[in-house]
Amino acid sequence: MDTSTISTRANGQKIIASWFNLIKTLLGTAVDYKVVTTQSVAASGTVTVDTTMKQIRKVSSSSGSETASTTPFGSTAANFEDGMEVTLIGTSDTNILTIPTNDAQYGVLSPVGDATLQDNFSVTYIYDETAERFIEKCRNH
């Protein structure tokens, strides 16, 4: 695969998919990932996740600036796998979603505080089954 072609594509989702396909080709293994279209999250609501090990989820609030639940991915342990990664990408400069930091069961831990997701801002979390927490891996803002 010509990587120069990948860098010139306008659609970010295709770039991500192309890189995962390149990794699969190089490693000779399947990379389990899912890209999900935009989910609108209400105040104190949750982002839907499943047991896919790498998830890319596009999100916005349902109305204006809102904060998700203190357990932003819910509290159903069956939906979480140890080591799963969830990347959230904001899709709106109007309907901005904040993911709160909360050191509690199924909460999010971040060294830099809440993640505010406006258009094209992203944050990635890794689930730690022992701690029962989502640990922030990185963000772009």
Strand content: 25-35%
Query: What distance lies between the first and last C-alpha atoms, to the nearest angstrom?
Result: 31 Å
Class based on secondary structure composition and strand pairing: alpha/beta
Mean residue pLDDT: 87
Tell me what the structure shows.
The protein is α/β, with parallel strands linked by helices. The protein is built from 2 helices and 9 strands, in the order H-H-E-E-E-E-E-E-E-E-E. The chain has helices spanning 3-8, 12-27, and strands at 33-41, 54-61, 66-67, 85-90, 97-99, 108-109, 115-117, 122-128, 133-139. The longest helix is centred in the N-terminal third of the chain and has 16 residues, at 12-27. It starts with a helix and ends with a strand.
Short description:
The chain is an alpha/beta fold. It has two helices and nine strands, in the order ααβββββββββ. The strands form two sheets. The chain has a six-stranded mixed sheet with strand order 1-2-4-8-9-6, with no helix packed on it. A three-stranded mixed sheet has the order 3-5-7, with no helix packed on it.
Describe the SSE topology:
Elements: H1 3-8, H2 12-27, E1 33-41, E2 54-61, E3 66-67, E4 85-90, E5 97-99, E6 108-109, E7 115-117, E8 122-128, E9 133-139
